[in-house]
Amino acid sequence: MPEGPEIRRAADMLEAAVQGKPLTDVWFALPQLTDFAPGLVGQRIEQIETRGKALLTHFSGGLTLYSHNQLYGVWRVVNAGETPQTNRVLRVKLQTADKAILLYSASDIAMLTAEQLARHPFLQRLGPDVLNMTLTAAQVKERLLSARFRQRRFSGLLLDQAFLAGLGNYLRVEILWYCALAPQHNAAELDDTQLDVLAQALLDIPRLSWQTRGTVYENKHHGALFRFRVFHRAGDVCERCGGIIEKTMLSSRPFYWCPGCQC
Ligand SMILES: [Zn+2]
What we know:
Elements: H1 4-18, E1 25-28, H2 31-34, H3 37-40, E2 45-51, E3 54-59, E4 64-68, E5 74-79, E6 90-95, E7 99-104, E8 108-112, H4 114-119, H5 121-125, H6 137-144, H7 154-157, H8 169-178, H9 192-212, E9 246-250, E10 253-257
Antiparallel strand pairs: 1-6, 2-3, 3-4, 4-8, 5-7, 6-7, 9-10
């Protein structure tokens, strides 16, 4: 399952192809959307925003295309006019003079006005997105300490998109290892320094993954690269304390941790 960083990277790829260019062809498979298509020709895609696993394609005329890929949906970038060979069902085509973006197989798609966007039930339930660069560690700390979340165990809290959107299982595992925290704790049990470290890691680790996961050193990123320290590494030696990394199940998902230094 892709997590926030992978969704954001996909959105970056779509933006690089079509952002800011006039749309020359717009096509929707879903009957409730077909009437919008002619009015969007000539408009531009201003931004492709990610909110957790939802993509918000903002058009210059003020409408927003909401799409959530669930398990099956996938976006592709192609040259204008190109039709890839695939068994997938095309749902959306947004084409510019040189490139087009195509959405296949997703069924959770809607066209929203600004007002509808603000009231959208799924989006309303989401917490702030860790890849939204305006979100600060101070705000995350405040959220950790709020009455709603302060007693929640990290094992479940860090998977809950209502707490922070964009986190997922590998990020949960890596963030807790980085902070040397065992998963049964909650924010109410931490001292101020631990809270500061956790709040910062909840932003820094997803953002590092977005910017560097899967890239190599010889590129523009000369700083740290994201890599797994414990995820999928059961039986390996912990690089911090020399303990042996273990695997268990927590909140119905595989969990990896080092009993030697996470307490
Ligand atoms: Zn360790």
